[in-house]
Amino acid sequence: MRNLIAVAFVEPVAEGLEFPRDDWPLHLTLVKFDVVTSDVVKSGALKFDVVDPRQDAGTEREPGAPPASGDPLTEQIATLMTDPVAAALGCRLSVDGEAGFGRAGSIPVNLIEPSEQLQVLHNELVRIVEQLPGRISTPAYTLEGYRPHVSHHGDKRLRQGETFALDRIALVDMAPDGGHATRRILKLWTVGAA
Fold first, then answer.
1. CB 93 within 8 A of CB 166
2. 138-164 pLDDT, tens per residue?
C-alpha cells in the first residue's frame, strides 16, 4: 500500500519538497488515503500498471528529489484529480475559531468556515479515491463528516478572521521510498498552472 494525502498548503511549498513528518508546512487536509501498488489492478474502467520505476531500474531516488517522471501511480492519480483541483484553485477560505482534535482534544486547530467550493472539491476527491484500489484512511471524517481545519505547528497557526486562497493544492506521499520519517510533495497544482 502507498500512503497518500491530498492537501491545500497555506505556506509556500514546491513540488518535490521533502519535510520531516512532525514539521509540516501549514495545510488543510482534503482526503487521506492508501492505494494498492501491486503490478496490475483494475478498478472499474481504471487500469493501474503501478510498478515503481525505481524498482525496474534497481536504483533509489536521492532524498528530496522530485518524483520520477515515470511514476505511473502518481501520474494517474494526479490526472484524475486535475479537473476538480483546477475548479477550486483560487477560491478564498475564511478562518474560524480554534478547536481541539485528536485524543482528548490534544491537537490544536483552526476550523475553516464552511465553503461550498471547498466541500465540492473534497467530495470530488473522495469520489475519485473511492474508485482507486485501496481505502480512505479516515472515512468517518469525509463527506458529511468533513471538518476542514488547519492544525497548529508550534508557533505557526492561522488567526480567526484571516482569509487565504486555495492556491497550492498537492498530492503528498506519507511514506516516501517506504520510510515514515518524512513526507514528499509528489504533485503540486498552483493558480495559473493547473
1. yes
2. 999 999 999 999 999 989 999 999 999
